[in-house]
Design goal:
The protein starts with a strand and ends with a helix. It has a five-stranded parallel beta sheet with strand order 2-3-1-4-7. It is an alpha/beta fold and about 210 residues long. The protein has nine helices and seven strands. Helix 1 crosses helix 9, helix 4 packs parallel to helix 5 and helix 6 packs across helix 7. The chain binds BIS(adenosine)-5'-pentaphosphate and magnesium ion (MG). Magnesium ion binds next to helix 1.
C-alpha cells in the first residue's frame, strides 16, 4: 500500500497515521517529523528549518523534495509507505509522481482528511506530544496520562499566530494538489470530525472501496 494523508494542520494526519501503519505494516513518513528531528539535532539546516517552521511558513521545495524522495526509496518502503505532510505543494506532487514512475511503482490512494478551519486552532494549540513514545495527545479531546505529563512537548509552531498562517498556506499552497490527485482517480475524501476511532474506520472503508 502506497498512500498519502493530506489535510490541514491539526486535521489528524499524525493521529490516524499511527493507527493505520500498525494495520498495514508500512513505514509512516512524516516530513514534519523529519524536519523536527533535524531541528532537535541542532544542525545548520535544523536552525534554518526552525526559523521557517516556527512562523508557520513552508520549507522550500528544493530542500523538501530531495529529503523526502530519498526517504521513500529506502529498503523499508519496498512494500509501501504512508506519507504524512508530503506532498504539500504542486511541485512536490509532480516530483513524487515522476520519481514513482521512474521506479515503476504507483500510488494506491490519497486520503484527504477534511476538517473545517474553525476547529483547527484549538486542535493545534492544545496538542501535546510525548517525545519518548511519539504519541500525540490533546489536553481536551485525548488527555495524556498523568505519568507522562512532565515530559510532554508543545510544538513551537502550535501558537495561535503560526496556526493561522499554516491554515492560510494550506489553502494557497496545498489545496492545489487535490485536483491533481482527483484527476488521477485516487483521491478519497474522509470527514475528519468526530471520534478518532470512527475516523480510522472511515479511512479503512474508503481504502477498501
Ligand atoms: P507537519 O508536522 O506536517 O504539520 P501539519 O501539516 O501542520 O499538521 P499537524 O502535524 O499540525 O497536524 P496533524 O494533521 O498531524 O494532526 P494531529 O494528528 O497531530 O508540518 C509542520 C511544518 O513543517 C510545516 O508548517 C512546514 O513548515 C514544515 N513542512 C512539513 N512538511 C513540509 C513539506 N512537505 N513542504 C514544506 N514544508 C513542510 O492532531 C492534532 C491535534 O488534534 C492533536 O492534539 C490530536 O490529539 C487532536 N485530534 C486528532 N484527531 C482528532 C479528532 N478526531 N477529534 C478531536 N481532536 C483530534
Ligand atoms: Mg502531524
Amino acid at each position: 500500500m502506497r498512500m498519502i494523508l493530506v489535510g490541514p494542520p491539526g486535521a489528524g494526519k499524525g493521529t490516524q497515521a499511527a493507527r493505520l501503519v500498525d494495520l498495514f505494516r508500512i513505514p509512516h513518513i512524516s516530513s514534519g517529523d523529519m524536519f523536527r528531528a533535524e531541528v532537535k539535532a541542532g544542525t545548520e539546516l535544523g536552525q534554518e528549518l526552525d526559523r521557517l517552521m516556527k512562523t508557520g511558513g513552508l520549507v522550500p521545495d528544493d530542500v523538501t523534495i530531495p529529503i523526502v524522495l530519498k526517504r521513500v526509496t529506502q529498503p523499508d518502503t519496498a512494500k509501501g509507505f504512508m506519507l504524512d505532510g508530503f506532498p504539500r505543494t504542486r511541485p512536490q506532487a509532480e516530483a513524487l509522481d515522476a520519481a514513482m514512475t521512474k521506479a515503476g511503482v504507483a500510488l494506491d490512494a490519497v486520503v484527504l482528511i477534511e476538517v473545517p478551519d474553525a476547529l483547527l486552532e484549538e486542535r493545534a494549540v492544545m496538542r501535546r506530544s510525548d517525545p519518548e513514545t511519539g504519541k500525540i495527545y490533546h489536553l481536551k479531546y485525548n488527555p495524556p496520562p498523568p505519568d507522562v505529563a512532565g515530559r510532554l512537548v508543545h510544538r513551537a509552531d502550535d501558537t495561535k499566530e503560526a496556526v493561522t498562517k499554516r491554515v492560510t498556506k494550506y489553502h494557497s499552497e496545498t489545496a492545489p494538489i487535490i485536483p491533481f490527485y482527483q484527476e488521477k482517480g485516487i483521491l478519497k475524501r474522509v470527514d475528519g470530525v468526530g471520534d478518532p476511532d470512527a475516523i480510522t474506520e472511515r479511512i479503512k472503508a474508503v481504502l477498501e472501496s
